[in-house]
Structures are given as structure tokens and as C-alpha cells.
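ARCHIVE CARD
Drawer: 12
Card no.: 0347
Subject: one protein chain, sequence and derived structure
Cross-reference: see card 0346
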Amino acid sequence: MAETIYLLCIATSLVAALLLLRMWRRRGTRLLLWSCLCFAGLAINNVLLLIDLVVVPDVDLMLLRGGTALASVLLLLIGLVWEAP
């Protein structure tokens, strides 16, 4: 059951990233690009979570998962600060 939730989280993050990328291509707003990069990073983080807890549970990937989550949120924060009027 947990594997299904992890896969749904991966799919949700990827769909959000793709939708944001599509809107960025149409409108060219840089904040959409920053948001897309954030959700792509969160999708990578969810893949690492699935690998860490399901595929190889004896290997600890917590530091790598934390790094990708931090980088993703920092991308969004940089975009929000940089694009502020």
C-alpha cells in the first residue's frame, strides 16, 4: 500500500512540473520556470524516497533525499525573491 502512495506522489509532482513547464512555454513568466524546477526536484526526491524505503531498505539515502528537497525549495524561494516586484 505504501508503494502505491509513493508512486502517486511521484506522478503528482511530475504532472505539476509538466503543467508548469507548458505554461512557462506559453507565457514566458520566469516564476513558472522556477516553480517547474521546484516540482521536478520534488519528483526526484519522491523517487529517492521510493528507492530508499522500498527498493533498497538497508541503504540510508536520507541525506541525499534531504539535499534534493532543500535544493528544490531553495529554487522556489530564489524564484520568489528574484521575481518580487
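Annotation on reverse: Residues 2-82 form one domain. Residues 23 and 29 are 8 Å apart (CA to CA).
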